[in-house]
Amino acid sequence: MGEIWIKEAERLGGGSIGGAMDSPNAPGRVVWHTTESGHGDASFTNVGKYLTSVASEPHILYDPTTDRLGQYGPLNQSARALKNDGVTRTNRTGKVCIQVEVLARAATPFTGYWKPGPNFKALMRAIRSWGVPDAWPAGGCAPGASRNRTTWATKGGHYGHCHVPGNDHWDPGNISTSAILKAAPGGGTVSGGSSTPAVSRATVTINGLKYGYGATGAHVTAVGKALVAQGCSAYAEGPGPNWTDADTKSYQKWQIKCGYSGSDADGVPGEASLKKLMGTLPGLAGSGPATKPPAKIAVPTVDLSNLVAAARRDPGLKQGGTTHPADVKVVEAALKTEGLLSATYAADGSFGSTTVTAYAAWQRKCGYTGSAADGIPGKASLEKLGAKRGFKVKA
Ligand SMILES: [Zn+2]
Predict the structure, then answer these.
(1) 48-82: buried (b, 16+ CB within 10 Å) or exposed (e) per residue?
(2) Thinking of the domain 10-188, which architecture would CATH place it in?
């Protein structure tokens, strides 16, 4: 028995879309589709609901640009994105017939620009868990692909909708069939069920210091603290000197905040994102041991008068026509980590009415009431927030 629900996937719809397979003794297979839509979270939501509304759910919805993975139904039952071939129910052919809708268009093959990450690996792991071989028995997906009935009925592996007999759709387009297999755990070598954790456990050495799962030292704590200060926390406790999956997940939030996606946002530090986070690239001073702390830990400083000017929108205090977005962003991130400011407003750098309301909630949390909790930052409440969330206050 293979994987039925992929633990890395978010659940979509009601959780039941098909039924038992008609030919469970035939080998397992995968069918790749494209949704003929754009990608991104809005498409994921809208197309996701649309497929349910027209009762054409695949098992899997996948965004090739964000590595987002959703699952509608159990892999050991049928999906319903295929037409029947006469009386043959193609959705129910094989031990499994795992159908994947990729948020893309057939005319622009998604393997040309995609960024498969840990979730794609999880999908391929689940596919292999059913004994589906790393093979394309009907060949490539270029126009004119074969819809051979015998191949479909008897061979396990990967198919496009363009290969399924009795169907007339040509998706997923001329994708690179080898790229699909290469993005699997182990780079496409047939491994019969190798497993990669959803959180990357790769390590990297930057400027003489080790980062990633299992790395230890004060530099690990310093990175963790800097991540918390940036509002990038997946920590239940800590951060501490031992790099755990929580550090990787927190670092991944930072990478996403920096604009990275897919496998570039796997939570394993790179030099550019690390330098941006720490202000300077931590390194060994002289030839000391790898556990020696970095010489300087960059902690953001928030200027109280800038912040008050931004919150009051006082034109006399504006500098250069700005309302001090750098100072505001640090405080917004801290308010978000406190659970007082939604992610929608947490990085806009504008101390507008929503941020004022969030700061007032922080003041009340500190015990202030009435006009002392008006949402305009004061020194004591700001220093308290900074001490908790990792920034200094210049008053
Ligand atoms: Zn299709």
Answers:
(1) beebeeeebbbbbbbbbbbbbbbbbbbbbbbbbbb
(2) 3-Layer(aba) Sandwich (3.40)
